[in-house]
Design goal:
486 residues, mainly alpha, elongated
Length: 486
């Protein structure tokens, strides 16, 4: 059925083809279903909704009114308005449920009801009170099904223990597993609709209800049901200080990013959430950075945030939560972090930051060299590769770059006269030096320099016995290296 939102104008009382008292008589028999059953049993709710629809269809006016489709929509709107009026006037929980069931069938979201029915929100205080009361009285227990397999029971137990210990990663292993399994962290109708409706009817009251909810799984339920604009608003609301709530808001942002990318609004929201987490719950902040280390959105927000920190604190966080990795899978995310940092900080601060990262990178290479279990057969770019190139570019002028390029090449030439424990050790040492040479070549190329000594160096590299020998086995990026130097 076409959504009522697609109609040219909202239907008002004077356009209804039936008198309200005639319609109200039709719903007396619905009161035989207890309200508690409507709240707790989704099947009872949808059975009631079907009864309402059948009453409307079988009503004698419907059989004679052309065109039938439009008339059905008009009459259904009239019924919805009756429910809405009763819900507002008396704070009737029963009629609120009827309203939500009927509008859900008509594809009207709970948060769209006030706008669609043209009723001022300030008149909804009785309804706000009764919905708040229901939400506060409802406990969202996370229990395994009676036939749950052993691994689900163990996951549930581990997740509940992690909540008690404030261990975010372990707790979200349970929540994410539920999402992957198709069950998700969800609640049945109409409780989910109550959450959405209250958030738009009275945002201030919704925040109060949210603040009284301390269970992390219940908070996840609340926040995952909300419209996107309400989540953004909560992310900027200083009253929302529960660490699990802040983490879940960030979690939802990252989930959205994975499906549709991110916008500047989402970047600002992620930055606000990270800032509040660090201020209010430093341990949760560190866990959040660890958990979302792959997210470009979080890396961007972190770049802006770190630019406001002392350099030593910023680098300490990178070492602890985003350590240098030999693989470059995370290079795009780390590059986004640097770009955001560069936008926020001044040039001297950026150079200082890059210097600290470069020092950590050299220590990483030294450790890699000493570790006999680590082997190498390619350039060791790492996820901080762009940082290293920019460090060389900003720290070295063309003459200094030429000297450093020559020095690294000389060290490579000496490799053939040095003793190595094995051929594997020789190859690893070669590629560690070659990694530095390759990074320097990009810095040289980006400065758009033309230094005769470097051009000669490219010729020497191309004819050097070590490079010629290694190139027989295929040196990665060799042609690109020579192109950068010429």
């Amino acid at each position: 059925m076409e959504s009522l939102m697609n109609q040219p104008r909202p239907l008002r009382a004077q356009s209804w083809p039936a008198r309200p008292n005639q319609l109200e008589k039709l719903f007396g028999q619905l009161k035989s279903v207890p309200v508690d059953q409507l709240l707790q049993d989704p099947e009872a709710g949808w059975h009631t909704c079907n009864c309402i629809r059948e009453m409307i269809v079988n009503w004698r006016y419907f059989r004679t009114a052309p065109p039938r489709q439009l008339y059905y929509q008009q009459l259904t709107s009239q019924v919805a308005y009756i429910f809405w009026r009763k819900a507002l006037a008396a704070g009737s929980l029963r009629y609120t449920i009827y309203l939500l069931l009927l509008t859900a069938y008509l594809e009207i979201k709970p948060e769209e009801i006030p706008r669609y029915l043209k009723v001022p929100r300030q008149k909804a205080y009785k309804l706000v009170h009764v919905v708040s009361k229901v939400l506060l009285a409802t406990k969202f227990d996370l229990n395994a099904a009676f036939d749950a397999p052993g691994h689900e029971l163990r996951l549930l137990q581990t997740g509940q223990q992690a909540v008690a210990r404030l261990q975010v990663k372990q707790a979200y292993q349970l929540l994410d597993a539920m999402d992957r399994g198709g069950r998700g962290v969800r609640i049945h109708f109409p409780m989910s609709a109550f959450i959405r409706l209250l958030s738009v009817l009275d945002y201030q009251q919704f925040v109060k209800v949210l603040q009284q909810q301390q269970d992390p799984f219940a908070l996840a339920i609340y926040l995952r049901e909300l419209p996107t604009d309400i989540r953004y608003r909560l992310g900027a609301d200083a009253r929302v200080d529960n660490p699990w709530a802040l983490f879940e808001l960030l979690h939802k942002l990252v989930a959205t990013e994975m499906r549709a990318g991110h916008s500047t609004v989402e970047q600002a929201s992620a930055l606000a959430l990270l800032t509040r987490l660090r201020k209010l719950h430093p341990d949760f902040f560190r866990q959040a950075v660890n958990y979302f280390y792959t997210s470009r959105l979080v890396n961007i927000a972190l770049g802006y945030l770190l630019a406001t920190w002392p350099i030593t604190d910023a680098v300490a966080l990178l070492k602890a939560s985003l350590p240098i990795d030999r693989y470059k899978v995370m290079m795009p995310a780390r590059t986004e972090l640097l770009l955001a940092y560069d936008q926020q900080a001044g040039a001297p601060q950026v150079l200082h930051f890059l210097t600290e990262v470069f020092t950590a990178w050299e220590a990483f290479l030294d450790q890699f060299q000493q570790d006999k279990t680590m082997h190498l057969s390619d350039v060791l770019e790492t996820d901080y590769w762009i940082y290293i190139i920019n460090y060389y570019r900003l720290s070295y002028d063309q003459k200094a770059l030429a000297r450093e390029l020559t020095a690294v090449f000389t060290r490579i030439q000496w490799l053939k006269s040095e003793w190595h424990a094995s051929k594997t050790a020789f190859i690893k040492t070669f590629y560690l030096h070659y990694t530095k040479l390759y990074a320097l070549s990009f810095a040289y190329q980006q400065q758009q320099n033309t230094v005769p000594a470097v051009q000669q160096l490219a010729n020497d590299i191309e004819s050097d016995i070590v490079f010629v020998t290694r190139n027989m086995h295929g040196i990665d990026h060799f042609a690109e290296l020579l192109s950068n130097l010429r």
